[in-house]
Amino acid sequence: EAGVTQFPSHSVIEKGQTVTLRCDPISGHDNLYWYRRVMGKEIKFLLHFVKESKQDESGMPNNRFLAERTGGTYSTLKVQPAELEDSGVYFCASSQDSDYPYEQYFGPGTRLTVT
Amino acid sequence: AQKITQTQPGMFVQEKEAVTLDCTYDTSDQSYGLFWYKQPSSGEMIFLIYQGSYDEQNATEGRYSLNFQKARKSANLVISASQLGDSAMYFCAILDFGNEKLTFGTGTRLTIIP
Questions:
Q1: CB-CB under 8 Å, A106 with B44
Q2: Can you tell me the distance from the alpha carbon of B98 to that of B101, in angstroms, rounded to the nearest whole number?
Q3: How wide is the angle at C-alpha B46 spanned by C-alphas B44 and B52, nearest 5°?
Q4: Does B107 touch chain A (CB under 8 A)?
Q5: Cβ contact (<8 Å) for B106 and A41?
Q6: Which residues in chain B have Cβ-Cβ distances shorter than 8 Å to A9?
Q7: Residues of chain A positioned with their CB less than 8 A from the CB of B99
Q8: Phi first, then psi: what are they for A72, rounded to 5°?
Q9: Across the strands, what pairs with A20?
Q10: Predicted confidence (pLDDT) per residue in B22-79, tens digit
């Protein structure tokens, strides 16, 4: 069974540009989460999808970030326009409600560098 | 709000020795879950072990065990017989069952010395 995949693995963009990160969850997982780790700090929650609906987007930093999950499968996270403080590693995770112990399976992350 | 504190930014341990990674948490929830994840240099987050707040026994998974002390709000990870492959970042996290949101600590970088 394939794990959570993320694309791209690395992205280097200039301030003001747009970047779109993609996450493919484990097949059949209804829950999809985005997290971010800024250099040297803790990993922070961004938002949670249940199927195609946003369950909780309380962690989204501002309106430059837009997440979508059309059809309840893969998800995209767009940053527009990117700022220097957006640099970090963006993780995607997925889980299935029926799983115990509510384990969230993480992808390898996308390292975003804004210059 | 929930909070995880990992007070050891880095640790060096001799191979084959046991190591304890500290984690304390703060939550007002009665029911919650505690996790440890390993992040090797390749970047992926690997689930290691889980402890539910109502589990009476400490969780164990192979060489990993979780020393859960609920009254002290601590959930330390113990790795027995450390191996070179254990060198990685280790994150402690708490799960809010209500919103399924994980809150992480800042991590501990463990280096195993041959």
A1: yes
A2: 8
A3: 145
A4: yes
A5: yes
A6: 43
A7: 48, 55-56
A8: 70, 20
A9: A78
A10: 999 999 988 899 999 999 988 889 999 999 999 889 999 999 999 999 999 999 999 9
- Token digits for B28? 């007002």
In chain B, % helix, strand, coil (3-state, to 5) comes to 5, 55, 45
Taking the Cβ of residue A74 and every Cβ of chain B, the question of whether any pair is shorter than 8 Å is answered with no
Query: pLDDT of chain A along its 115 residues, tens only?
Result: 679 999 999 999 999 999 999 999 999 899 999 999 998 788 999 999 999 999 999 999 999 999 999 888 999 999 999 999 999 999 999 998 765 557 889 999 999 999 9
By the CB < 8 Å criterion, does A45 face chain B? yes
Phi-psi region of A108 (alpha: psi -120 to 50; beta: other; left: phi over 0): alpha
Residue A98's pLDDT is what?
A: 60
Cα distance between residue A8 and residue A111, in whole Å:
8
